[in-house]
Specification:
Length: 178
């Protein structure tokens, strides 16, 4: 799976790891803002390291351990990260509500899909990026530093740094002067 090859998502080890992440997400999503130490413990267990992020529940992910976060990352309500492959997020990144990051994908071949095989490609988001609410980041996408993505966009291709991009499919609208 992490090598980028087709894999069986029903592999017992993967099922166990996803169940663990879902249990931790469930506990996080049931926690209260007045329990910051409890939330910090849950996030440490989910991501496998201490993080400097604010994650506004509900939050959902496949594994957690394949997500790396820089400093001061903010996930608004209802974000989803399908972290079958690594998801690298820089510092000071803002995610609007209901943003979805998908590393998981399925083969174009119907016969491979019938076999239940899946694939994945990593996502990289550089520092100081702002992703508007409801945006979807597709497998294999790289987003450059200081880029802003409009709400509801579907990002299917890499975006350079210092641009405002929006739409479905997401396109560069203009450069940003930082």
């Amino acid at each position: 799976m992490l090598a980028g090859e087709l894999y069986d998502p029903l592999n017992p080890q993967l099922v166990t790891e996803r169940r663990r992440a879902r249990d931790l997400c469930h506990a996080l999503n049931a926690s209260r803002e007045d329990q910051p130490l409890h939330r910090a413990e849950l996030l440490h267990e989910l991501f496998g390291v201490e993080i400097d992020a604010w994650i506004q529940p509900p939050f959902f992910c496949d594994y957690g351990s394949n997500i790396s976060l820089g400093e001061k990352v903010f996930f608004n309500f209802n974000c989803v990260v399908l972290d079958v492959m690594p998801v690298h997020i820089g510092s000071h990144v803002l995610f609007g509500p209901a943003v979805q990051l998908y590393t998981a994908t399925h083969p174009l071949s119907a016969s491979a899909r019938r076999e239940g095989l899946e694939a994945a490609r990593p996502i990289t988001i550089a520092s100081d990026v702002w992703i508007g609410g409801g945006a979807i980041i597709c497998p294999g996408v790289r987003i450059g530093a200081r880029t802003v993505i409009g709400a509801g966009s579907v990002v299917t291709k890499d975006l350079p740094e210092d641009v405002f991009a929006a739409g479905n499919p997401c396109r560069i609208i203009r450069a940003i002067n930082s």
